[in-house]
Each structure stands twice: as C-alpha cells, then as structure tokens.
Write a structure and sequence with these properties.
By secondary structure, the chain is an alpha+beta fold. It has helices at about 1-15, 20-25, 85-95, 100-110; strands spanning about 25-35, 40-45, 50, 55-60, 65-70, 75-85, 115, 120-125, 140-145, 155. The protein has a five-stranded antiparallel sheet with strand order 3-2-5-6-7.
Length: about 160
C-alpha cells in the first residue's frame, strides 16, 4: 500500500512539473531602467512608471514602451512575447506525459513565453541644441553685440 501511494505521488509530481503554467506562472517581473534615471515610462498597455521600475506583466502580450525625460530625446522600445527555453521544456513535459489539456492551458495562458528584452535598459541622449531655422533650412542670422557706430557682424550657416 505504501508503494502505491509513493508511485501515485511521483506521478502527480511528474505531471505537475511538466506544466509551465504551474512551474512558471503566467506573469513575470518586467524591469525598466534608464540612464539617467527618472524617465517617465508609458506602456502601450496603459501603465506608467518612473525609471527604474518593475511591473508585473502577462507573458503572452507584445507591447511598446515610450520613455521621456525633460532635456533628452524620447525613446520607444518594442517588447515581444516569445517562447522561452523553460517554457518549451514545460510544453515538452506536457507532450511526453500525455498532458494535452496542460499543453492547451500553457499555450492559452502564455506560460511557455517570456518577454524580451527584459530588463529594458536605455541610455537617453541629451537633446541637440535648439536651432532657430528658416523655412529653407538655414539658421536665422545672429548679430554680435556692437558698439555705437560699428557695423554688426552677421553669421549665416547653411545645412
């Protein structure tokens, strides 16, 4: 009788370990970092946070992140959901042990996937010096300070 209980317990453990939904879950901690820190991160899914930050995200959905900080160029990052090595092993466990229901659950919940890149690490670039340009693309003429009776020096740059 003791041997039957042990065999039953091992069978349950084997079936459970093959299911990515049980072993990995359907969400993961998603990390967003920036240099310099303090950038506003806006996800296409509606969440916002200031970097560095960690959000709990479902593994099965793609999304984008827009990062902005005053004085720096904005950056957009695409995050994709892809099959993970551990997720594929969990799915293989379902197939080996005949867990078609478990395979369907794993596929439906996204438990076999992971979000990439994770963590998102972005170095923000400072904004270029703002130039006052004319419609033709030339920088507006700037005059140096001049004393009384002197002609101003006019500098014009064309790009």
């Amino acid at each position: 009788m003791q041997l039957i209980k042990l065999g039953l317990a091992l069978t349950v453990i084997l079936f459970a370990s093959g299911c990515a939904t049980i072993t990995r879950g359907t969400t993961e901690a998603f990390v967003i970092e920036s240099q310099p820190p303090g950038a506003e991160a806006r996800l296409s899914t509606g969440e916002t946070c200031k970097t560095p930050c960690t959000l709990e995200k479902k593994r099965k959905h793609n999304f984008t992140i827009d990062l902005e900080k005053e004085g720096y160029e904005p950056v957009s990052v695409a995050v994709v959901s892809q099959v993970a090595g551990a997720g594929a092993a969990g799915m293989a466990g379902n197939v080996v042990f005949g867990g078609l229901i478990g395979a369907g659950v794993d596929a439906g919940t996204g438990a076999t996937k992971e979000l990439r890149p994770n963590p998102v690490q972005v170095t923000l670039a400072p904004l270029a010096a703002a130039a006052d340009t004319t419609a033709g693309g030339a920088v507006a003429m700037k005059e140096n300070e001049v004393g009384d009776g002197e002609e101003p020096l006019v500098i014009e740059k064309r790009y």
